Amino acid sequence: MTDDWVSLFSGGKDSSWALYRALEEGLDVSRLLTIHPAGDSYMYHTPATELAELAAESVGIDLVEVSPDDFGADDVDDAGAQGDAELEPMEAALRETAAEEGFDLAGVTAGAVESEFQTNRIQGMCDRLDIGLFAPLWQEDPVALAEAMFDAGFEIRIVQVAAYGLDESWLGRRYDADALADLVDLREEYGVHPLGEGGEFETYVVDGPHMDRRIDIEYDAVWEGDRGHVEIRDARLE
After folding, report:
1. Cβ distance 49 to 11 under 8 Å?
2. Domain segments of the chain as ranges
């Protein structure tokens, strides 16, 4: 038996950084767990999660996926209750994974930065499962985190925006030092978080030191007046 870790993985920069740091720390990450919410979510990154299979293949770690059919939060109108309901399919998937023969679940990795709403629920789940939580981004300086991602060689694309100051030109833009500088300026003017922690923007990692092959994506930009997202037309590993 080994100490197996599961990486809570959307493919966005934060969960990818948590995975990368876990691997750097020598944790035996044996599974990636991707949640596919049907719509807006209090707990999960939602855009471009359909790329998870390609990302997992590039990383070289087996993927467990939870589909929208596994959610039971449709009739919940309280944010806290919805967050609790959204956590249930993740916990069920972890219990099922932990029950696999030869699998010894030691903990999960998470990319939470500042959200106590998410982190408290994930920590509570870990306590119930009697496993550890590795959250290397938690309460770290957001600008320093972004710069560490760039320095490590992460190629990050912005796949969704929803904030004053972020227009259609940001869709598909590379999240790099130039973008970060613009976001720091927008923080002064509009309060935009440099990591998008308030939902201002979402990202996807298409290449990095933990990946064997880059994800090449073709997309259409969908703009809806004051927000937008990229719609993936095609994706492949280079």
Report:
1. yes
2. 4-134, 142-237
Q: Does domain 142-237 have CATH number 3.60.15.10?
A: no
* HEC letters along the chain: CCCEEEEECCCCHHHHHHHHHHHHCCCCEEEEEEECCCCCCCCCCCCCHHHHHHHHHHHCCEEEEECHHHCCCCCCCCHHHHHHHHHHHHHHHHHHHHCCCCCCEEEEECCCCCCHHHHHHHHHHHHHHCCEEECCCCCCCHHHHHHHHHHHCCEEEEEEECCCCCCHHHCCCECCHHHHHHHHHHHHHHCCCCCCCCCCEEEEEEECCCCCCCEEEEEEEEECCCCEEEEEEEEEEC
Task: Give me the pLDDT at residue 117, please.
Answer: 84
- Token digits for 48? 């471009």
- CATH number of 4-134: 3.30.70.1290, 3.40.50.300, 3.40.50.620, 2.40.128.20? 3.40.50.620
pLDDT of residue 48: 84
Mean pLDDT in consecutive groups of 10 residues from the start of the chain, 238 residues: 88 97 98 84 71 97 84 58 81 95 96 89 96 97 98 98 96 98 96 93 97 97 95 96
Q: Specify the pLDDT at position 54.
A: 97
CA 58 – CA 20 distance, rounded (Å)? 13
In whole angstroms, give the CA distance from residue 82 to residue 99: 27
